[in-house]
Amino acid sequence: xxxxxxxxxxxxxxxxxxxxxxxxxxxxxxxxxxxxxxxxxxxxxxxxxxxxxxxxxxxxxxxxxxxxxxxxxxxxxxxxxxxxxxxxxxxxxxxxxxxxxxxxxxxxxxxxxxxxxxxxxxxxxxxxxxxxxxxxxxxxxxxxxxxxxxxxxxxxxxxxxxxxxxxxxxxxxxxxxxxxxxxxxxxxxxxxxxxxxxxxx
Amino acid sequence: xxxxxxxxxxxxxxxxxxxxxxxxxxxxxxxxxxxxxxxxxxxxxxxxxxxxxxxxxxxxxxxxxxxxxxxxxxxxxxxxxxxxxxxxxxxxxxxxxxxxxxxxxxxxxxxxxxxxxxxxxxxxxxxxxxxxxxxxxxxxxxxxxxxxxxxxxxxxxxx
Lengths: 201, 159
Known about the structure:
The complex is a heterodimer.
Chain A: E1 9-13, E2 27-32, E3 40-57, E4 64-67, E5 79-81, E6 91-93, E7 96-101, E8 104-106, E9 112-129, E10 144-160, E11 163-173, E12 177-178, E13 190-192, E14 199-200
Parallel strand pairs in A: 5-13
Antiparallel strand pairs in A: 1-8, 2-7, 3-4, 3-5, 3-9, 4-14, 6-7, 9-10, 10-11, 10-12
Chain B: E1 13-17, E2 28-34, E3 38-40, E4 46-53, E5 59-63, H1 66-69, E6 70-76, H2 86-90, E7 103-107, E8 112-118, E9 129-138, E10 147-158
Parallel strand pairs in B: 3-10
Antiparallel strand pairs in B: 2-4, 4-8, 5-7, 6-9, 9-10
């Protein structure tokens, strides 16, 4: 049994967030299949390929690099983002589904006067055919990769006079890469849980 | 051959997250089904979790990490709680942390959304046997903010 998170305070977020505009998503992924396709379901999996925070101390001095707790490990990337499968319930129908992501970073004005984040990831979509009637074992059907999209963003927030402001932000998503071999399955060497505070060096 | 299209849009903005005090409510419900009722030792156990908005207002739900978005209670056939995983034991849900996966789902009145979570993230299911799984989820503050419990499902872990 565990607790349930309750975020507080200002955050640097890709997208609008819940309190401002829930439809100003950071990034949206949409997948569709032909209505005549055999029955099945999409499964989404995201891999983190880079995630670095550059924070400037409030008291002055050089900026420091910070990472999710898993990052200092050797060969951390690509890392599974948070959970398998992607932990946000997809919206839409079986034949036409969407996912969204709005990575966030709580801002700490007591410690830093500027915080910046550089993030990149690959979102995979897979298709799991419906198992035969009466077959309930995990071996009955397996997900098949359809492809992935690489994407990234960067943002910087500055703290002055008790207020955080966004000083820069950019991002892009790239073309869908079609899976064409067994090696097209998403593979990761670590699990980026995002379950604890950043580690700064 | 399946046709697939992926559309992408991006935007950046800074916003403030506010908090509120939870009030009792039964405006939401949670139902679980086992993704597979039979799994082999060493495989992860998954359940499908369906959240339903039973209220008369639309709500926006944020999902970040299953370890903090849900509670999962796993008991063996003798009724003993399965031990927490290291990840569950170390997870800090009381302080905000940077997120990777961080998504929103909007539910109109009487709408549902279904996601899949790994029970093996929460509990050690390495021993063979039959387990019962129950999921808890805190409904949005607009609906009361109480933790709503699901039905219980059985999963067998076989050699």
